[in-house]
Amino acid sequence: MPLSTASAPASGADRIALVRARALAIRRSAFTMVHDAGLGHPGGDFSAADILASLYFGVMRYDPGEPRHPDRDRFIMSKGHCTGAFYSVLAQAGFFPEAQLGTYMQPLSMLNGHPNRNYLPGIETNTGPLGHGLPVAVGIAIAGKLTGNDYRTFVLTGDGELQEGSNWEAAMAAGHRKLERLTVIVDRNRLQQGDRTEATNGLDPLDDKWRAFGFHVDMIDGHDHAALIDVLGADPSGRGKPLCVIANTIKGKGVSFMEDNVSWHHGVPNDDQFAQAMKELI
């Protein structure tokens, strides 16, 4: 049967309003999960929330009732430590009950600290060790090209993650094979564990690097839902090369004491911080 973006209204304004509401719900849910579990990576969850909401409620085609549908678009969460946001969007999209989010990181829970495709529907591949998601996505995109299937493959990477050389081997293969139905999204919050990316192992000029590997590159505000839907939803047919979207984001976006604060790469709020964040996330 034909697939469509789940729960997406037809009109642009209504769709953006839905995506905005979903992104807010992702942040609230992810922070609750981290608070209750005493573990997690909320800064990266928050920088990626608008990207995930735009993909799942404004761009991708999938059927949560048939999660392995052969014509589905594929999404890989390469920055696999940000499971608070990822599990939240999967639950909102209908892949499993939202009530299950309350088991996050509990013993024997299906909601591990890193996503596992053997545990939950909607997860294409296990991720967590950084630098693995893009190589897998390239393989999936090659398979689609060889079989003539028109599904699209999206992969979300962290910017610090791009210091892993495996990403650039995969990028070289993708550019060489002109995988126009592959889209790499870089969550460019400029912070990684412990410090800024440019102080650790500089990435700039990041756009020129991707172009040199044969990608078309768009740089956008990663919190602008209209821009995300416009760029990610554009028909790739005839582009002749893969797409890299450098989404400029803010780590901890939406909560004043978390924004652009490296200590929230991995951080657990106390009860007062949690209460303050819930007041701000409205």
Automatic annotation (TrEMBL):
Its EC number is 2.2.1.1. Residues 24-279 form the Transketolase N-terminal domain. It comes from the Bacteria. Its cofactor is thiamine diphosphate. The keyword Transferase applies. Keywords: Thiamine pyrophosphate, Transferase. InterPro entries: THDP-binding, Transketolase_N. It is an enzyme of class 2 (transferase). The keyword Lyase does not apply. GO terms for molecular function: transketolase activity. Signal peptide: none annotated. Belongs to the transketolase family. This is Putative transketolase N-terminal section. It comes from uncultured Pleomorphomonas sp.
